[in-house]
Amino acid sequence: MEPTAGPVRYQKLLLWDPGLESEEEEEGTAETLILDTWRPQDSSGNEVGGLPGAWARLVAALLLLAVGFSLAVRQLHTQGGSTETLGSVAPPPSGHAHHPGVYHHGAIISPAATCSHLGRELLVAGGNVVDAGVGAALCLAVVHPHATGLGAMFWGLFYNSSSGNSTALTSGPAQTLVPGLGLPSALPTLRLLHTRFGRLPWPRLLVGPTTLAQEGFLVDAPLARALAAQGTKGLCPLLCHTDGRPLGPGARAINPKLAAVLRRAALAPTPDLAGEALLGLLARDLGLEGPSAGPMPTLEPALQLPVPQGILLTTPSPSAGPELLTLLQAALHSRGPSSDPCPPLLQATVTPVSSVLATVDSSGSVLLLTSSLNSSFGSGHLSPSTGVLLSNLVVKSAPNVWACPLILHSSLDDTEADVLGLVASGTPAVAKVMTRTLLSHLAGSQTQAQQGPTESPSICGQGTLLQVAAHAEHAHVSSVPHDCCPFQGF
Length: 490
Fold this sequence. Notes:
By secondary structure, the chain is α+β, with helices and mostly antiparallel strands. It contains 15 helices and 18 strands. The protein has helices spanning 5-13, 18-27, 30-33, 46-87, 113-124, 129-143, 186-197, 202-215, 221-230, 256-266, 271-274, 276-286, 321-333, 430-443, 448-451; strands spanning 102-103, 106-109, 153-159, 166-170, 176-178, 181-182, 217-218, 252-253, 298-301, 303-307, 310-314, 353-361, 366-374, 406-410, 419-425, 464-471, 474-480, 487-489. The longest helix has 42 residues, at 46-87.
């Protein structure tokens, strides 16, 4: 037998050609390739000399089969890798980079790094700006109880770039459970916004906040400062050491009662039911039969004001939105801001405490949310059954001066900044600050959309201002002061 006859036949078998296999069998090669290992031995010992050759041919066949299989797998892997590379959206390593706060897809900015990170995770998971904003707002309700929470009142402004519609969110008229204690409205309000405009399942948004409440969160600098200024009366054991001292930066706080409320809220099928479990527990804590009426959140068209640069959008009364548009209209007619846009510093002692956040995507959809317990830690009444701090918002006819989010939607021929969103907190004259900021933006170069909302180091020496923008197919986020609010994007 020639040395090459066997390997050639084995290689042909690797091709899995049925026709070839039939031909080989007709020629008698099947007897060579398929060994009859059960052949009886002869008495002369001929199998001793023949068996090793048969086994050698079998081993060679197996080796060739292994090599052929390896080559086939490698070829398939190479083809699959080429397809994956062609379909990938990741940019090639060409040195493409952006300034901080500029992203290809979407971004979020909030007062807490943990909540900005959670909002980014929801964006990456396929959520939209509403999912990211609502998830971050619920996160802030856990980690920033001095400024917001499930007991807070919310206002929001949403611009949908897909439909071109702008919508205002309100918690409804302020109501009280008992004198001095506001009726919680956060859960039904945020659930209403998500039901109408969200993309991810509602329970997905509550996973992060629930985990933070159950397993604990680290006290950050803003919360620690508020605790040091407020003291711990009414806040123990939630935000206190065992000896009654307030928790400091880096200390871990847990709120398992709040986690239980959030788990129940995740199962609520409608906005109306989202806050029912909370209200029932609060009524039991306060010895009430139950609130006479639940919260009445609404979604309604945003207020609009056409300007030469596009159209301005804000929230209706009883927010400070109408006041903001009046100030802007007067300032634009006078072609400049007022000479003294900032109020006296003494008014800062009556500043309502509020929390703000903003989300944006590169297509131009924007969500601005602002909320308040009215005072630092609200009423200071911590519900033992829910872990919720109730607000001290009361029924008033005066507008909510802390609520006036603003969006500027540019005209179609404006190639520099498609959409600009502004939201501020912590100042007694938010509307004046917003007016000043927008006029500075309109008067300055359009590159401010990339560099920041304003050159001023602060807003009248008080509070914070957040800006988001969709510009040149990118999402932009920034704040004043620049280090007040962590941002995340992708």
